[in-house]
């Protein structure tokens, strides 16, 4: 059973790698690369959020706050204090993890609507601080962020690079880097899910009472996964800031938190590949619906509503179940 699960995870990872590295063949201009890079960064963020929501069964309506903290910390330290990007990203992730642990210990004792409101309040507090501390963050006007510096190698959308004999422009290089980051994020999440920690998280999701009865320290595991998901958000927020070159308080806004949680639910809670699909769909829909102008928001909401009514388990799990049923029916007919 364990070997079968591991083979399935490896197959998913290989399939994702093939898609990511084959995708540039279909990207024809800088806008396409920009959109694909954003998808990869946001998808890695929701992979971390899925650990909290899909596997541990906890809700977070303020996760954009951690994303924004990572973005602004890296932007401030590299832009104002001359730090290199990698130390700024790592230190920012550690600090965000500590903040998540401090706030997570009390609020994760709550359940249901109370937990939702508490995480929402955390996100609002972070967004307000970023918006009001103009001297540090630039306030509503935002702030510029330097290019990503990887051990002296500067990655910029406006640069040109040579990789294994291939000449790449900055957008192509950034996409390949973001794709690699997404693969690492998925690999870590899958290994965590298959570990004893992952089994403990699933037991917490199933029944906290039953988990405690068999000796699972539910409070510690919920705090741990909250910290891990916040670190995911912080790292991806920092990368997003360096990629965009400019950030505003919108990166920590409530709207963005709702988008992140919707990606998890739409793609399929508890499905790592599903939430990536959810991220792709929600990033692409506004582009597809742009021609409808004032009806764009209405159609966007309608599509999401119909999807959740007819695919309550999420896009990918529903598709997988439909394919499985069809294969079983075909096998039964042949027998």
How does this model look, in words?
It is a multi-pass membrane protein. The chain crosses the membrane at residues 38-57, 64-83, 89-107, 114-130, 173-193, 223-241, 253-278, 298-319. One of its GO terms (molecular function) is branched-chain amino acid transmembrane transporter activity. InterPro entries: ABC_transp_permease, LivM-like. Keywords: Cell membrane, Membrane, Transmembrane, Transmembrane helix. The chain has 335 residues and is mainly alpha-helical. It has 2 domains: 2-288, no CATH class; 293-335, no CATH class. The chain contains 14 helices and 6 strands. The protein has helices at 2-22, 30-55, 63-79, 85-107, 112-132, 134-137, 170-193, 196-206, 208-213, 218-244, 254-267, 272-288, 296-310, 315-334; strands spanning 143-144, 148-150, 153-155, 160-163, 166-169, 246-247. The strands form 3 sheets. A two-stranded antiparallel ribbon has the order 1-6. Helix 3 (63-79) runs antiparallel to helix 4 (85-107) and helix 4 packs antiparallel against helix 10. The chain is globular. The two termini are 26 Å apart. The mean pLDDT is 89.
């Amino acid at each position: 059973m364990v070997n079968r699960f591991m083979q399935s995870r490896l197959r998913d990872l290989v399939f994702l790698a093939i898609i990511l590295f084959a995708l540039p063949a279909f990207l024809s201009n800088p806008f396409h690369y920009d959109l694909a890079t954003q998808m990869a960064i946001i998808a890695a963020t929701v992979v971390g959020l899925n650990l909290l929501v899909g596997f541990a069964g906890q809700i977070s309506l303020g996760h954009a706050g951690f994303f924004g903290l990572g973005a602004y910390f890296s932007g401030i330290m590299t832009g104002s204090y001359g730090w290199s990007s990698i130390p700024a990203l790592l230190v920012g992730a550690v600090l965000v993890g500590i903040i998540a642990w401090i706030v997570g210990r009390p609020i994760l004792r709550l359940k249901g609507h109370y937990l939702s409101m508490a995480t929402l309040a955390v996100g609002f507090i972070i967004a307000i601080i970023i918006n009001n501390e103009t001297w540090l963050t630039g306030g509503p006007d935002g702030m510029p962020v330097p290019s990503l510096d990887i051990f002296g190698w500067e990655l910029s959308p406006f640069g040109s690079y040579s990789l294994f004999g291939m000449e790449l422009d900055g957008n192509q290089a950034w996409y390949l880097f973001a794709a690699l980051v997404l693969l690492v994020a998925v690999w870590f999440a899958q290994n965590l899910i298959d570990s004893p920690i992952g089994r403990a998280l699933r037991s917490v999701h199933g029944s906290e009472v039953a988990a405690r009865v068999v000796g699972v320290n539910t409070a510690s595991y919920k705090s741990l996964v909250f910290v891990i998901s916040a670190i995911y958000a912080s790292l991806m927020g920092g990368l997003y800031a360096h990629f965009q070159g400019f950030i505003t308080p919108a990166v920590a806004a409530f709207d963005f938190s709702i988008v992140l949680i919707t990606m998890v639910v739409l793609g399929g809670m508890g499905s790592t590949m599903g939430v990536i699909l959810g991220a792709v769909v929600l990033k692409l829909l506004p582009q597809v619906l742009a021609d409808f102008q004032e009806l764009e928001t209405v159609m966007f909401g309608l599509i999401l509503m119909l999807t959740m009514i007819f695919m309550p388990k999420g896009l990918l799990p529903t598709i997988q179940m439909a394919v499985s049923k069809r294969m079983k029916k075909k096998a039964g007919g042949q027998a």
